[in-house]
Design brief:
Blueprint: E1 7-11, H1 14-17, H2 30-36, H3 53-67, E2 71-75, H4 78-81, H5 92-107, E3 111-117, H6 123-126, H7 136-151, E4 157-162, H8 164-172, H9 187-214, E5 217-223, E6 226-229, H10 235-258, H11 264-276, E7 302-305, E8 309-313, H12 324-328, E9 331-333, H13 350-363, E10 369-373, E11 378-379, H14 387-405, E12 411-417, E13 431-432, E14 436-438, E15 447-449, H15 451-464
Parallel strand pairs: 1-2, 1-12, 2-3, 3-4, 4-5, 5-7, 6-8, 7-10, 10-12
Antiparallel strand pairs: 8-9, 11-13, 14-15
Helix pairs in contact: 7-9, 8-9, 10-11, 13-14, 14-15
This protein binds beta-D-galactopyranose.
């Protein structure tokens, strides 16, 4: 059902698995600070140790081999490589660690997909304004060039930034992710803007300096739910759905894949709200200056993180306060027929992925697509024999097959989230997404395959055997 060279993967992120938060010269990141400040994370937990992949990498490699993955998605910790975020000082131990990971993967015939930024900004750069400061783009570019130079001979798939939407909104509007800022209606747009500028700068650097030799692809990972109007015949619900999409997927995909600028629906909604609340000054959604590298065309493939679906109707806002919720004016509803798995936001809708893939094909000119994240969580009593999750993966992969065969979507790979149970951001270790169970109570942090892991391995093997 899948092309021979289809990528079968699983993903992780540095802060969620590595631990070793100050091991061998690593500098602190905003997640170290956020967790240590207390109050922001479930049970005051942190990623100080997590799965200790910094020391137990070879255990992870055994899991990757047991699953038969063709690809493994990992992220680099910026402050493990450059402790203060700048190339003034390189931590050779961090470089050695990632060199070993990459070389071990390649020796096992597994291709690494590397994310340069998965939520963990060096604290030293946050102290200078972080993603709100325009200067962050060239600092990110220097870090990225260092990585291309050092590791790029062996990496064919790069992700610059993971989920700019989540970094901007959860980190700077809602304050529930690091750096924990609550500056509604203003900061998230600025952060999203600087992330797009930084991403584009890095893509251009790769394109002009490294692509000819290294022959890789660069993109950014965009998260999106699939959304439909609550009532398909109601004009208000239809326009609310358009706004919802513009403020999530469109915010980042429109500039990169369609026009080089934000969706018009997004800008006009923000400006109308500013006017209504008497907010003077220039648009809260910044504009791209003509002097900077073009944003349009800065992705060699579409990297999609899909978890769930929503029905949409006009929303409730924040009254007289500025906030993204009021700008967007689109409320989310869960269809009661969708089962919830673990965390409350994750309604299980495998078919939404097929619809979203078709939408991406039609809207963004049929790009090559990798599903870079998709998964199912467990909360509460643990089941190693996690039948529901096995069924979820089977159903979802079937939807990907239909997108490929029946809808002609150019899907190149699928990455389950996640290889291991890990530190699930504000939910700490209370939410488990792994294909492997990790015993966080035990010093050895023993990894045990779940039933869903065994079933995923079987699917991959069947595919490899051409059955
Ligand atoms: C994504 C994120 C991952 C993982 C996942 C499950 O937003 O990129 O790191 O936590 O959600 O919630």
């Amino acid at each position: 059902m899948f092309p021979r060279d289809f990528a079968w993967g699983a993903g992780t992120a540095a802060y969620q698995i590595e631990g070793g938060w100050q091991a061998e010269g690593k500098g602190p990141s905003i997640w170290d600070t956020f967790c240590h400040e207390k109050g922001g994370v479930f049970g005051e937990q942190s990623g100080d140790v997590a799965c200790n992949s910094y020391e137990l990498w070879e255990k992870d490699l055994e899991c990757i081999r047991q699953l038969g993955l063709t690809h493994y998605r990992l992220s680099f910790s910026w402050s493990r490589i450059l402790p203060d975020g700048t190339t003034r000082h390189v931590n050779q131990k961090g470089v050695q660690y990632y060199n070993k990971v990459i070389d071990d993967l390649l020796a096992c015939d597994v291709s690494p997909m590397v994310t340069l930024y998965h939520f963990d900004l060096p604290q030293a750069l946050q102290d200078q304004g972080g993603w709100k400061s325009p200067g962050i783009a060239s600092l990110f570019d220097s870090y990225a060039k260092f990585c291309f130079q050092t590791f790029g001979d062996r990496i064919k798939l790069w992700i610059t930034i993971n989920e700019p939407y989540v970094c901007a909104k959860l980190g700077h509007e809602d304050g529930i992710h690091a750096p924990g800022l609550k500056e509604p209606g203003i900061a998230a747009y600025l952060v999203g803007h600087n992330m797009l500028r930084a991403h584009a700068m890095v893509w251009h650097s790769y394109d002009s300096l490294y692509r000819t030799q290294q022959k890789g692809w660069v993109s950014l990972a965009i998260n999106s739910d699939w959304v439909e109007p609550l009532n398909a015949d109601c004009t208000e619900d239809i326009t609310a759905t358009e706004r919802y999409l513009a403020f999530t997927l469109g915010w980042f995909a429109w500039p990169v894949f369609v026009t080089g600028d934000y969706p018009e629906i997004m800008r006009s909604a923000i400006d109308a709200q500013s006017k209504k609340l008497g907010y003077n000054g220039s648009s809260r959604l910044p504009s791209f200056s003509k002097d900077q590298p073009a944003i349009l065309g800065t992705a060699d493939f579409f990297a999609l993180n899909y978890y769930t679906s929503r029905k949409v109707k006009p929303g409730s806002g924040c009254g007289a306060m500025l906030c993204m919720k009021s700008d967007r004016d689109a409320g989310e509803v869960l269809d009661p027929s969708w089962p919830i798995c673990g965390v409350s936001w994750l309604a299980v809708v495998p078919n939404g992925l097929r619809k979203l893939l078709k939408y991406i094909k039609d809207t963004f000119n049929n790009p090559a697509v990798y599903v870079t994240e998709n998964g199912f969580s467990q909360v509460g009593p643990l089941q190693i024999e996690d039948t529901q999750r096995s069924v979820f993966y089977r159903d979802t992969i079937l939807e990907v097959a239909k997108a490929l065969q029946e809808d002609g979507v150019n899907v190149r790979g699928y990455f389950a989230w996640s290889l291991l149970d890990n530190f699930e951001w504000a939910d700490g270790f209370s939410v488990r997404f792994g294909l492997y169970h990790v015993d966080f109570e035990d010093k050895k942090l023993c990894r045990t395959i779940y039933k869903s892991g065994r079933e995923y391995a079987k699917m991959i093997l069947k595919h490899k055997l051409g059955q």
